[in-house]
Design brief:
single chain; alpha/beta; Rossmann fold; 5-stranded parallel beta sheet; 4-stranded mixed beta sheet; globular; binds adenosine-5'-diphosphate; binds guanosine-5'-monophosphate
């Protein structure tokens, strides 16, 4: 059986990746979403096992030692990782897998899964990124500051050392939704 495709989305926090992923979840049938593990505390709307597997630091480290992650990284002061068994099981069954990984984790992931297609989502400007993070209302001012400082480094890293076949600027939301939908179809229909 032909293996399924792997589509990795990366973006600085606040660029609109969750919004665009929600859109393709609704409009492109048959995609499977990888659920990451994290030590970050859940946000009010988040459900364990659906948005993330929320783990203690100790549980997370036990999984690193057991080589259970396809990649893992510290992002904005918390640990995030992709369970390896789920990636393998999904693509081996011929299904297409969609993932959300930060730019450094994507680099580590590529070593094991060089066939993965990367989609980098960028904000139209740093001012607009700041506005979106504030308007979302999920982060403290301190956390927003950390995310903005990291955003510049992440974008620079992605554009020099990353492997992203597609770069998409999330300016007008309806336009960006149409573009992301068309790119995902291009990958899974190839
Ligand atoms: P991420 O998952 O990349 O951190 P989100 O999808 O949570 O980002 O988006 C951050 C905030 O910006 C949310 O409040 C979202 O509704 C808003 N947003 C997303 N895309 C756009 C856009 N094109 N124009 C204006 N606001 C947007
Ligand atoms: P958030 O805390 O806003 O949900 O996510 C913060 C960052 O963690 C985002 O940049 C997101 O892409 C990244 N992230 C989420 N899951 C994973 C993962 O499994 N691995 C890595 N490396 N990064 C992840």
């Amino acid at each position: 059986m032909k293996q399924g495709s792997i589509i990795v989305f990366s973006a600085p926090s606040g660029a609109g990746k969750t919004t665009l992923l929600d859109h393709i979840r609704r409009t492109v049938p048959g995609l499977v979403y990888s659920i990451s593990a994290t030590t970050r505390p859940p946000r009010p709307n988040e459900v364990d096992g659906r948005h993330y597997f929320f783990l203690s630091e100790q549980e997370f480290h036990r999984k690193i030692e057991g080589d259970e992650f396809a990649e893992w990284q510290a992002v904005h002061g918390h640990l995030y990782g992709t369970p390896r068994y789920f990636v393998d099981r999904t693509i081996e069954s011929g299904k297409h897998l969609v993932m959300d990984i930060d730019v450094y984790g994507k680099k580590m992931f590529d070593r094991h899964y060089p066939q993965a297609s990367g989609i980098l989502i960028l904000p139209p400007s740093m001012d607009e990124l700041t506005r979106r993070l504030r308007n979302r209302g999920t982060e403290s001012e301190e956390s927003i500051g950390v995310r903005l400082a990291n955003a510049k480094k992440e974008i620079a890293f992605a554009q020099t050392e990353g492997k992203y076949e597609y770069t998409l600027v999330n300016d007008d939301l309806e336009r960006a939704k149409a573009e992301v939908e068309s790119v995902v179809h291009e990958i899974i229909d190839s």
